[in-house]
Amino acid sequence: MTLILWFTLALIAAYLFYPAALWLMKPLNGGNSGANGSSGGVSVILLTYNGRPYLEAKIGQLLHELSAIPGGELIIVDDHSTDGSSEVIERYRSHPGVTLLLKRVHTGIADSMNTAVAMATCDTVVFCDQRQKLSEGCLQRITGPLADPRVGAVSGCLSHLDRGDKDSMLRRHENFLKTMESRTGCVIGVYGPFYAIRKECYVQIPEGIILDDLWLSLRILRSKKIVMEKECTITDDDHAMLYDYQRTRRYLFGLMQILAGRGALRGLGLRQRIMLLWHKYLRLLIPVALFASYVSTGVLAMHSVAFLVVFVLLTLAPGIAILPSVTRWHARLGNLFRMNVFYLLAFTDILSRYVRTGGKP
């Protein structure tokens, strides 16, 4: 039983050591990261699906950003929305530099991306989702690092503050990890809502891929570097509302899909594979280990007063976390606890499904 507790502590310590390991790696020096990397023009691809409330503002901002880049174009691909999004999009059909594609069948994001890139006429492609708000000057910032020929993709930075200025401790942590990875030129997965790539680096995304941004990033890392532009901020809706069980479950399915398929890992260097497992997969074991430690502590509590005290404290902590938030730190604790429960349930569900289907997602 105590072995489980030590294993859990070792797991947490190993995960927390990841930033230190990144700091010890050789940084990506030189290059022309401050220059404009969009000399061949920029094809901005806006992917939409049932996002009517966001479209007017998002299209307006992207056109404003494109006005500062000669030879730029905006390609809007709507994946057969049913909320009237087409009415908003159609207003821009005759706008110069805008190309519209309103699909008659909902085929998913991978098909939308593949089709849009085939339509793009510029050397640089920027993918953009419909919901998030982008910082001023984001288009020039996101393409700037591509002036360095070693860089194949640039990720925006998903703000730790949401639209209501609520802070997310989890988002701060993820941004910190990606900042450290960017220092080495090896960001393990761009932020999907806004990122730029060299068109020559794009690889057709297979149908059914869930985490298209991570899958594409791993393909690019075979031959190029990926960095994050911290000054290009992406602001999303309430972080707590976005982290629900279905989203968590889908994310875990996507990670298992990439690991099981192995095709995305082929061609990666040893260091990149270690970083992928360390950053994306190691932390998934922590909720499972914590639950196992809780059960083990309960068993040991029947024979030890010290473990009984620890078990009572561990039992009270979740109760305190799920109470209505009274402070900012209390809210963060509640969100952290909720996320760990989601991960534990989703991990259990996916593992049982893999057992039942013989290793198939």
Explain what the structure shows.
It is a single chain. With 361 residues, the chain is of the alpha/beta class. It folds into two domains: 1-21 and 245-361, no CATH class; 31-242, Spore Coat Polysaccharide Biosynthesis Protein SpsA, Chain A (Alpha-Beta Complex). The chain contains 14 helices and eight strands. It has helices spanning 2-16, 18-24, 52-66, 85-90, 109-119, 138-143, 169-183, 212-220, 239-242, 245-261, 270-281, 285-301, 305-322, 328-357; strands spanning 42-48, 73-78, 98-102, 124-129, 133-134, 151-158, 194-198, 225-235. Strands 3-2-1-4-7-6-8-5 form an eight-stranded mixed beta sheet, sandwiched between helices. Strand 2, helix 4 and strand 3 (98-102) form a beta-alpha-beta unit. Helix 1 (2-16) packs antiparallel against helix 12 and helix 12 (285-301) crosses helix 13 (305-322). 32% of the residues are buried.
